[in-house]
Amino acid sequence: MGILDKKVVLVTGTGGGMGRVAALIFAREGAKIVGADIQIDGNAETAELVRRAGGEMTDIAPVNLTAQEQVHRMADAAADAHGGLDVVYNNAAMQRFGAMPDFSVEDWHATVAGELDIPT
Question: 26 with 89: CB under 8 angstroms?
Fold first, then answer.
């Protein structure tokens, strides 16, 4: 038994990195995971890893968390998957990288939106 038995946890950014690790840890503690990411393959891989470890994960992908209508659809689908949500772990972020002389205003705005707007 884990400390999150029977809890439902929405984790964003489960396509890899910290989101994948978070999904595995929450599942190890007994939570049912709903994982969302823009990366279809990475998100499916995380779901398979959770299942192989004995957990349960519903995967929702692709979802672009900078698009408000997609966020609403994701939240509704996540809540519907298990009858509600107990925890939201908002891990996702989207950024662009590059040398400052080559970094466009569009790159800057996309990075700001991907880092600051996603949590809202």
Answer: yes
pLDDT at 97: 84
**Cα first-last separation, the chain:** 33
Sheet of 87-90: strand order equals 56-60, 32-36, 8-12, 87-90
Q: Are 38 and 15 in contact (CB under 8 A)?
A: yes
**Residue labelled with tokens 């949500």:** 85
> Which amino acid would we find at residue 98?
G
Task: Tell me the backbone φ, ψ of residue 50, rounded to 5 degrees.
Answer: -60, -45
Tell me the average confidence (pLDDT) per consecutive run of 10 residues in the chain, 120 residues long. 92 96 98 96 98 97 91 93 94 84 89 74
What does the domain layout of the chain look like in residue ranges? 8-94
Q: How far apart are CA 23 and CA 25, in angstroms?
A: 6
Residue located via tokens 């038994």: 1
The domain covering 8-94 belongs, at the CATH homologous superfamily level, to: NAD(P)-binding Rossmann-like Domain (3.40.50.720)
